[in-house]
Structure formats: C-alpha cells, structure tokens
Amino acid sequence: MKAKSLPMLLAIAAAAACTGPQPKPGFAAALPPPPPAAPKLADGAIFNAGGGYAPLYTGHRARAVGDPVTITLTENISSTKTAGSKTGRSGSFGITPPATGPLSFINPSSLNASGTSSFKGDGNANQSSTLTGELSVTIVEVRSNGTALIRGEKRLLLSQGEEWVQVTGIIRLADIDADNRISSSRVADAHIEYSGNGAVGRASREGWLSRFFSAVSPF
Fold first, then answer.
1. Please, what is the Cα angle at 34 between 32 and 40, to 5 degrees?
2. pTM of the predicted model, to two decimals?
3. Measured at the alpha carbon of residue 92, what is the angle toward residues 104 and 122, in degrees to the nearest 5?
C-alpha cells in the first residue's frame, strides 16, 4: 500500500513545483482580464479603412479622442416681432310705416336701428442675448464622416458664488484652425449653458412668495 502511494505523492509534488506560487489577493489580482484585440481590417500600402477619417495633413491639430479644442463663444442673437390688427364694421336698419291705416300712429323714427363695432390691437416683442468668451473642451467621439462630438465645462469659484459654462455639440475636424480653435457658430446641435449661484444670483431672482402670487393672480 505504501509502495503504491509513493509515486502518487511524487507526482503531486512535481505538479506543485511546476505551477509555482499563486498570486496573493490584492489590486493586481482583482484587475479584469484585458479585452480581446479587435480584428485588423484589410488595407493597402497607404490607405487604411480602419483608421476612419484622416485628412491629408494634420500637423498638431486636434483629431483624436481626448484632444482639447478651444471653443470661441461668439453668440449674439436678437429677435424683433411686431403685430397689429384693426377691424371695423357698421350697419343700419329702418322701416317706414304707412301714413294711413291702422299703423299710421307708429312713429317712423322708432323703427330705425343701427350698430357699429371696431377693434384695434398692437403688439411688440424684442429680445437680445450675447455671450462671448473662450472655453476648452475635449473630443469624446470621432466619426467616420469627419465630424467629432465635443463636451466640456468650465467652473469658476468666485467670492460671491460659483459660475459655470457647459458646451456640447458636433464639429467638423476640418473647421479646426492651426491654433485648435473653432467658433461656436460652427458647432452643430450645440447645447451651451451658462449659469451660476450665490448671493448675487439670489438677489437677481424673484422671491418664492412673489412667484406664488404671480402664478395664481388672474391679472
């Protein structure tokens, strides 16, 4: 019995020596395995279809995910609307009774009627908004048609509150100049938000009780 168990013990010891010590549990052991490599598309000597959009000359212009781009805010929007309406209407009605007969006692002026109506309305609306400045964002997605999705924000902590500017949208990589700048007027589907909070912001807003009476007031 002992002779048969000896070869088995030797085999177990040899297997343990080959495998080596096991890694201790920790940060390295908890890392997930790396994702499998994507299959490489067939390409030629120069053109690579898997690279997506690639201009003839790039230099130091932003073109990849994570590259910063400076957005020059040049928003200046104004609108004016004027409306007017005027109507008028008049009419009259009269009957002359016979001079003789049973209806001769009726006064002719009592059977006359007339009416007039008029309306006039005017309306004017003016609105203007201006936003200037600069904000650096990053490219978060590059698309095969030469466009890219950008997103970024800037937060300022001032002595009387906090202000922030957020910009997101779609740009053309060809519109980026040599200084990695692009105007906000060339951002498609642009979402620009400028807001703030603090003592100055609260002072410029209407109080909650005043807003309540404004909402329920019929006038």
1. 160
2. 0.53
3. 160
Q: Can you list the pairs that 7-11 forms with residues at least 24 positions away whose Cβ atoms lie under 8 Å? A: none
Q: Which helix (H) or strand (E) holds 162?
A: strand 161-172
Q: What angle do CA 31, 34, 39 make, to 5 degrees?
A: 170
Domain ranges of the chain: 68-79+129-204, 80-125
| Residue 85 φ/ψ, nearest 5 degrees | -150, 140
Q: Give mean pLDDT, residues 19-45.
A: 52
Q: What is the mean pLDDT of the chain?
A: 76
CA distance 141 to 151: 10
Measured distance CA(19)–CA(7) in Å, rounded: 19
> How many Å apart are CA 114 and CA 49, to the nearest integer?
84
Residue 47 vs residues 41, 120, 129: alpha-carbon distances, Å: 11, 70, 47
pLDDT at site 40: 63
Q: Which of 140, 147, 133, 142 minimizes the C-alpha distance to 192?
A: 133
pLDDT at residue 219 greater than cutoff 50? yes
Across residues 196-200, what is the average pLDDT? 75
Using only C-alpha atoms, the chain has a radius of gyration, in whole angstroms, of 41
